[in-house]
Amino acid sequence: MWDPGAQVARARGVQSLRSLGEALREVGFTEKETVRALSAEDPAELLSNAAFYAVCSAERVPELLTSAAGVMVQLFVRNGGVPADLYARTVPIALRGLLAELELVAERDGTVTSEVSVSPGRSMYLLSDQLFRGDASITMAGRSTLVMPPHASSFELLDNLGAVEGRLLDVGCGCGILALALRESCSSVVGVDLNPRAVAYSQVNALVNGLDADFLPADLRSGLAVGDLADHLVFNSPTGPTHHAETEIGWMSAEHALTFVAAAMPAVLRPGGTARVLLIVEVPEGAGAVTELVRTWVPGERDVQVAELRGSPLAVSATALARGRLDPGCLMADGMAGAARLVDHLRERRIREVVPTLVTIREADPVRR
Ligand SMILES: C[S@@+](CC[C@H](N)C(=O)[O-])C[C@H]1O[C@@H](n2cnc3c(N)ncnc32)[C@H](O)[C@@H]1O
Predict the structure, then answer these.
(1) Residue 97 belongs to domain spanning
(2) Which residues pair with 125 in a beta bridge?
(3) 254 with 297: CB under 8 angstroms?
(4) 276 Cβ inside 6 Å of ligand 1
């Protein structure tokens, strides 16, 4: 398995990582080109269904292998192999040198492969583990420490945040997408994650994208101690339908996620600072309004605002559940079989709907009272 921490620890690795983004951009490996090459609808949809696109685009591989950008898509998005002679002919020598130096590719029996996923997105390159290998076999299993590529939920949160300025704390940073995407508008960013491998990938991605950000391991459940008090906390929480509990690292119920954030806030946010949490809420049959349900999960007398993101591709509507079929464009399940499993699971547990929710909690400000 690729070791992101080892690359960050080596001076030579740091230098090479710093030049990787530019080298990938130079060969035209962009978000737009990747979406076009795999005929996806948009970047979020591609990222959420990457394994599906990998399988469906198998017949396009010969065409992909005619350009350096296409070879990058094959290696790092489809997670497939490239014949070594074609690799040498298509990819400029400088980029080949860099990828070899960083151990991002390896050649065996005449085929070049990678163990790392590279997602071009938001004008950045985000390295993470591969969740599937080659054309079909899903490798992600159980509660491993694999670091996921950015997901539709990452974009959902970013697109609904509005302006974020000042000092930012990104909780559960994963590959670092939120902290890095918000870096330019903030005076400083710190990301924390339970998974040390995620911390290392975030550090790698800060270097690749030339962004100054600190990442450290920390567990939200046992409180966070991360230096200066922040103005904003963001958390794309590992919540969702309970059957995600099997695969999502640190999965927690939406209620627990909010309770942990509320408990951690005084130690990490300045008075008046805000926590913004994306929760995927399972709403049981018979429950009242989602907003009221979510408010009851925040203890004390804090200012809590709840935005229900019902139009989101992460929602499962009550109508879809009644009909027994997910809405077109829903990204909560992979493929038809996954969608059917999700519907069965929710119905068995008497869930009325699944509502993505952006919760804003303001830390008490004694001066303004
Ligand atoms: C849904 S992912 C979000 C990753 C990334 N922020 C994004 O938006 O793509 C949730 C992240 O929370 C991390 N996590 C889970 N439980 C945690 C905990 N108790 N403390 C800190 N991080 C946690 C996971 O390791 C994972 O990286």
Answers:
(1) 4-131
(2) 120
(3) yes
(4) no
| Overall domain count for the chain | 2
**C-alpha 27 – ligand 1 centre gap (Å):** 32
pTM summary value: 0.94
The answer on 345 and 261 residing in a single domain is yes
Residue 283 and residue 364 share a domain? yes
- Ligand 1 atom at minimum distance from 151 CA: 9
119 shares its domain with 172: no
Structural domain includes residue 44: yes
Name the β-bridge partners of 316: 354
Domain CATH number, residue 352:
3.40.50.150
State the Cα–Cα distance between residues 50 and 63, nearest whole angstrom: 19
CA of 224 to the centre of ligand 1 (A): 14
Same domain membership, residue 244 and residue 159: yes
Q: What is the mean pLDDT of each run of 10 residues along the chain (369 residues)?
A: 94 95 97 92 80 85 96 96 97 98 97 95 93 65 76 92 96 98 97 96 98 96 86 95 73 94 94 96 94 91 93 92 89 82 93 96 76
Q: Is residue 130 a contact partner of residue 117, using CB atoms and an 8 Å limit?
A: yes
